[in-house]
């Protein structure tokens, strides 16, 4: 009886041990499976995180390529769009290119530039391409083809000498003065051709002079623009602050201007140039906007470029242009208000080279991003 009881006890212990062992093995198996599953999930999450990180790096690189392209265009409006390739910090890279197309807008032609930039993550596993468009345009929308343009009338009680554009009215048809009011040649005014001016024979061989007005003066023209600022710069005069914001310099006077001046210069108030001061050059001219102020050029001073005497829409005061002692503008003089009431003097010599440089020089080129053109597909 004792042996049977002992055997039963041993059998029960063996069974309990087997059950415990089985339970431990099952528990260990479950823990192993859970560990493996968790590791797999974590590995998958890591891959997702890595892919997202690579995607963000590639996207940032592509955006950097776009910004780089816009920067290059700002410095060189004639960039041909050749690939810009750069490696960034962190070893991600971008490659940016551009294509150009001419488009007509209002009274001018602009260049539409389509930018494309591809960014690649450092490990090369993620690639993103983004696109955007920009406009390359000249500050001067319509290069004037007349050396003296006056809105509101030109009083000729003072002196003026205007050298015509030999082809302003068509091939071989000279133009000197363009205005929307009558020009009465009762003052000491003279217009002449380029050769006559070069030969110092403007007064002896004029087109128009005191008592005689020839066809080189187009006055009382019904087609004269209602808004001279809009005609020249494609910006309405009511929005003059837009043009002012585009200026390379905004000045209170003209005391700092000289041979090295270039680009669009906006002056608030009177502008006086000392004798023999030369502003701008044939290869690097200026567009000088004198706002609500008189322009006085003393003996021998010259401006190479375009002078625009601008009276703001709400201003009622009169302003004058006076070029004394042979001072002159080589290019174009324009005014959106009447001049001459105070016997001002106007000496404008049409210079096609100066105007061509205004169209071509980088200082007069602007870049504007096209709203809504960005895409990543």
Q: What can you see in these coordinates?
A:
- The chain has 2 domains: 1-138, no CATH class; 148-364, no CATH class.
- The chain contains 5 helices and 20 strands.
- The chain has 377 residues and is an alpha/beta fold.
- Strand 2 and strand 3 form a beta hairpin.
- It is rod-shaped, with a radius of gyration of 38 Å.
- The strands form 3 sheets. Strands 5, 6, 7, 8, 9, 10, 11, 13, 14, 16, 18 and 19 form a 12-stranded parallel beta sheet that branches. A 5-stranded antiparallel beta sheet has the order 1-2-3-4-20.
- The mean pLDDT is 87.
- 27% of the residues lie in helices and 30% in strands.
Task: Explain briefly what this protein structure is.
The protein is an alpha/beta fold.
The amount of helix comes to 25-40%
The DSSP helix count reads 5
On the 0 to 100 scale, the average pLDDT is: 87
End-to-end distance, in Å? 90 Å
Measured by DSSP, the beta-strand proportion falls in: 25-35%
**What oligomeric assembly is this protein in?**
single chain
Question: Element order, helices and strands?
Answer: HEEEEEEEEHEHHEEEEEEEEEEHE
Class based on secondary structure composition and strand pairing: alpha/beta
In angstroms, what is the radius of gyration?
38 Å
Count of individual domains: 2
| Molecular shape | rod-shaped
Task: Give start-end ranges of low-pLDDT stretches.
Answer: none
